[in-house]
Amino acid sequence: MRMAETSSIEDAEVAKMKPITCTRCGTVMGPKQQKSHRYTASGLDNVVLVGVDVRTCPNCGNESVAIPRISELHKKLAQAVAEQAEKLVPGEVRFLRKYLGWSGVDFARYAGVTPETVSRWENGAHVMGPVSERLLRLCALKMDPVDDYSVLGKMATEEPQAREIRLTITTEWKAAG
Ligand SMILES: [Zn+2]
After folding, report:
1. How far, in Å, from the CA of 54 to the mean position of ligand 1?
2. CATH code, 106
3. Which residues of the chain have pLDDT under 50?
């Protein structure tokens, strides 16, 4: 996931050899402390990680945080966002879309809207409709980011027409291509 790159994860081996310095001013960072850290690197400003190892720069106050099990964290975070009763705010729409590994264009195809509409949802110019919002939440809750979503993009937008679906029994049920 792209978001993970912005978080600083300490390499224990490197830490043993040389002191950790501030990425902003170069001063040697303070000792590890278990603290709460506002996880703005997620793209959300309302997420606080409690009890993570944080080092603070004694000179400029910059924080470096060690975030363990980052994909599990993002999954839990996506779940919490998708399950909330409140309507999604633009940052949450963007977070869930990125969590699923979708580009803005991907999401536009899956939701059957233009990429411009997706941009407007994510910058707050337009409020997302309830159907698109449910699609995004359901995908975030029920699918893994590695799943294949191509079926959503292939959905025909013309006249509805039921196509014959053939299923064959061998050792298990298999749909014919
Ligand atoms: Zn500093």
Report:
1. 14
2. 1.10.260.40
3. 1-7
Residues around ion ligand 1, judged by CB within 5 A, are 22, 24-25, 27, 57, 59-60, 62
Gap from CA of 28 to ligand 1 centroid (Å): 8
Tell me the per-residue pLDDT of 149-166, one tens digit each, with 9 for 90 and over: 665 656 555 566 677 777
Rounded distance from Cα 74 to ligand 1 centre (Å): 28
pTM of the model: 0.71
**If you write DSSP's letter for every residue of 39-91 in order, what string do you get?**
-GGGT-SS-EEEEEEEEE-TTT--EEEE--SHHHHHHHHHHHHHH-SSPPPHH
- The whole domain housing 37 covers 29-68
In a domain? residue 153? no
Q: Are residues 76 and 64 in the same domain?
A: no
Burial of 13 (0-12, 13-18, 19+ CB in 10 A): exposed
Q: How many whole angstroms from 29 Cα to the centroid of ligand 1? A: 7
Q: How far is the CA of 43 from the centre of ligand 1 (A)?
A: 22
Q: Is residue 13 part of a domain?
A: no
Q: Total domain count for the chain?
A: 2
Confidence (pLDDT) at 174? 75
